[in-house]
Amino acid sequence: MKILETITERVFHLWKSLNARNRMLTYREEDRKQMEHVDIPELTEDEYQMLKKTWPFLLFDRKDLYWARLYKKEQGFNPYYLGSTNHCYALRKRINPIKQIHALSNKALSDVYLSGIPFPEVYFRCLKGCLYDKGMTPISMDEAVRILRQKESFVIKPAMSSCGEGVRRFAIPDERMITPAWLSSVFLSSTDSFIVQEVVHQHPDLARLNPTSLNCCRITSVYVAGKYVYAAMLKVGKMGATVDNWHSSYLIGVLPDGHLKDRGWDISLHSVFETDFGIPFSGLKIPFFQEVLSSVEYYHKHFIPQCGIVGWDVTVDGLGSPVVIEANLVVPGIPAEQLCSGPFLMGVHDELCHAFGY
Fold first, then answer.
1. Pick from 348, 347, 346, 310: nearest CA to 110
2. Which domains can be identified in the chain, with CATH numbers?
3. Are the CB atoms for 112 and 136 separated by under 8 Å?
4. pTM for the whole structure
5. Is residue 68 within 8 Å of residue 84, measured between CB atoms?
6. Ranked by mean pLDDT, which of 23-32, 89-98, 185-194, 219-228 comes out on top?
7. Would you place residue 7 in the very low, low, confident or very high pLDDT band (cuts 50, 70, 90)?
8. What was the pLDDT predicted at 238?
């Protein structure tokens, strides 16, 4: 029996090692592909050694430093810029408890687990093929139909997805279109777990940037050893886009007073200076931005302080109230946020080193 246990343990550790290596190579290749059309300078040996000294708890390989090289090109070298997706993964893995983040990342239950946070109104949800209303009472398909017939539109989101994958928005021009058969066909094209929510009507100042997408702030907040920092950017949808992931949006840094920076970036890392409707980023200000910042800081500190880093997608509704679209714990976002807002992790550098035993 002991021999079998030993073999099992060794096989398990070998599997973990291979899985970690495959993940590292995958992230490295993703970084390379995103940069392949961008002329980025190499880091000098002094810069490389400075990075290693600044982040002593990370494993460094020159093949991983695409983001650090891009930042050098765009803003100048800074050793506090965390330079690769692999490094960001290592950081998130250490400061976000893995057993909790996967449960808290279930979008179909976010409003239940984090009930004090203003998510979009829930109409109903599906968990493993079973329907529940927003109060978690089981409902039938006929009851789901009745709920939607009272609405003008709705959004359906898979429980476990990221980057807007699988999110669909439906208008209801005629309540008679909502039938059990039609709803079943919609559900069948989704996963067995999803949530059905209201369509959030954003503030006019945000809607004019692109009316077909929800133009959200991404606030990446870090809370470690009682110290809090954040990075802020705005995701502005491209013309005709209905989701706000980077493939469909432009990312623009946001100054502390809510004004946008002059320049943003598209997914190919080309500089962009205006929306697809010709509205320059320069001079634009996000409405009620201070309320967004203070709300996110409160939510992080009071609802999920055990998680060191959270990527909050937040918009502002027509009444000026922040609405949290989702809290990203698995892929909170660091590389692009640093590109847009600067190396914000400098503010918790010592705390992060301590968390890794340095």
1. 310
2. 2-95 (no CATH), 121-197 (3.30.1490), 202-355 (3.30.470)
3. yes
4. 0.90
5. yes
6. 219-228
7. low
8. 93
